[in-house]
């Protein structure tokens, strides 16, 4: 199969032009934004030109189908609020190039997918959550983004044409190529990572409600300051998590909304997210137990009301053994001695897809280990090597 690195890179750069941030190679292409929908239409056009049958499902997942039973290759093409140009986009465009090359030469049927909202504007991996059946559409529709908009209202504005469901049994397997988004390959000098497992995640939104009041007249002992409560919560959380975590466990308070966010007002309310990730499901549960205990303590100590939304999550997931073996063989052939097996600390659609078809993942290095930031990047030679390894594995499968 003759893949075209030139055509692959050109498509990758065109996809970046949808929502290009103007800072480095960054993009701002959140799920269901106008520019994200425009990029989906463009992608659908490229799939059609490649001779694939284009299908959008009701959530906005975009498939380019190659026939009755095919290998599926892809990822996502939405971005974080401040994202890089390769996170997700790389896997989708690699899938497009391999499907197109195979079609041109009468090779095996290869289909492409771009899952919607992988970056979790509404959920966790919303598009593949719904496609694989982990999350019912009716529940997904009620999810809110940080601005209070429902997923249902966002998807109803898409107007992407006829929606049709895409059955899982159309596919014999799933391959996803992604940038590593961490420092392991970049610092070791390896050029390819074959993913063994994807970590599990839990994510929750928490609200502390205290008493909004005047910052000059309210004595300290009378305050119910929601921000002070959050500050104490964070300190206690770090102390208590340290009793159960390992060096690879991670946790993040990534979104904080302080109300009314004014210098002369004692904050009456904070809404924040807490996310934690680990390869061990038991540990994820232990951490949730600790979190709930601390919430109770803080409510008592500060006289505030604590509300926890539903904890959302995905369990740790192993990649399929045959898929790993096939990727390893291709890596050893094209990058002898320059690849490694490794777990993924980032989530990927493959975490979900692995529940419905055998799935495998391939990483290429992230320069400086940077991602979810405008300056995320990968050397062009590594992008092309990744494409070649993926194509070789796809052919073998
Ligand atoms: O957060 C993640 O791991 C993924 O990039 N959505
Ligand atoms: Mn991604
Ligand atoms: Mn991401």
Fold and architecture overview:
This protein is α+β, with helices and mostly antiparallel strands. It is built from 12 helices and 17 strands. It has helices at residues 5-17, 34-49, 89-104, 126-131, 137-141, 151-156, 184-188, 226-241, 281-302, 321-334, 349-353, 380-396, and strands at 53-56, 62-65, 70-76, 110-115, 171-179, 192-198, 200-209, 213-214, 250-252, 256-259, 265-266, 269-278, 305-308, 312-314, 317-318, 339-344, 359-364. Strands 1, 2, 3, 4, 5, 6, 15, 16 and 17 form a 9-stranded mixed β-sheet that branches. A hairpin with a 5-residue loop joins strand 1 and strand 2. Helix 8 (226-241) runs antiparallel to helix 9. The chain is globular and about 75 Å long. The mean pLDDT is 96.
Q: How is the secondary structure organized here?
A:
Blueprint: H1 5-17, H2 34-49, E1 53-56, E2 62-65, E3 70-76, H3 89-104, E4 110-115, H4 126-131, H5 137-141, H6 151-156, E5 171-179, H7 184-188, E6 192-198, E7 200-209, E8 213-214, H8 226-241, E9 250-252, E10 256-259, E11 265-266, E12 269-278, H9 281-302, E13 305-308, E14 312-314, E15 317-318, H10 321-334, E16 339-344, H11 349-353, E17 359-364, H12 380-396
Parallel strand pairs: 3-4, 3-5, 5-17, 6-16
Antiparallel strand pairs: 1-2, 2-4, 6-15, 6-17, 7-12, 7-13, 7-14, 8-11, 9-12, 10-12
The structure holds (2S)-amino(hydroxy)ethanoic acid and manganese (II) ion (2 copies).
